[in-house]
Design brief:
This protein has 162 residues and is α/β, with parallel strands linked by helices. It has a single domain, classed as L-asparaginase, N-terminal domain (Rossmann fold). The protein is 25% helix and 32% strand. The strands form three sheets. Strands 4-1-5-6-7-8 form a six-stranded mixed beta sheet, with helices on both faces. It has a two-stranded antiparallel ribbon with strand order 2-3. Helix 3 links the parallel strand 5 and strand 6. It comes from Pseudomonas indica.
Length: 162
């Protein structure tokens, strides 16, 4: 199994500097998490962007789409900020012949209390089992793109009403 990981920034890779929540997007955390887990599959990581997802533009989403469509790998994982990952998933919805899975974190991977490693693990496991399509792995569940929403008040993702 070979997995291509594209990172776009978001909370997953944030680094906080002070009590006023000043932050920047740091280096991708996915490789470190996977190395610490001792995975035995091949993966490559390419950082496409280092932005909070609320700052992503149509041009940024076009870049993500271009990279995913051109990627020779069938299994693609995208770490993305949780606020707009469903928007970006919609932009990729007609890319055929690939399993594309988005994941993120509600707390940065660098923090002690974070959902990042769990979400990454769920995403990697699902990526190996799912049929072609676009998915979101958050809150311990796998959702089809277009059928999921972020519930800010509850701090989780859940199925959206169709």
């Amino acid at each position: 199994m070979n997995i291509q990981i594209f990172t776009t920034g978001g909370t997953f890779d944030k680094v906080y500097y002070d009590a006023l929540s000043d932050f920047k997007i740091g280096d991708p955390m996915a490789p470190q998490i996977l190395q610490e887990a001792g995975v035995t599959f091949d993966f490559q990581v390419e950082s496409l962007l280092k932005k909070d997802s609320l700052e992503l533009t149509d041009e940024d989403r076009a870049l993500i789409r271009e990279k995913v469509a051109a990627c020779p790998a069938k299994h693609i994982l995208i770490t993305h900020g949780t606020d707009t990952m469903t928007n970006t998933a919609e932009v990729l919805k007609d890319i055929p012949g690939k399993v594309i899975l988005f994941t993120g974190a509600m707390q940065p991977a660098r923090m002690r209390l974070t959902d990042a490693p769990f979400n990454l693990g769920v995403a990697i496991g699902a990526l190996q089992c799912l049929p072609d399509g676009i998915y979101v792995a958050m809150s311990g569940r796998i959702f089809e793109a277009g059928k999921v929403k972020k519930n800010r008040a509850a701090g989780r993702f859940e199925a959206s009403a169709d």
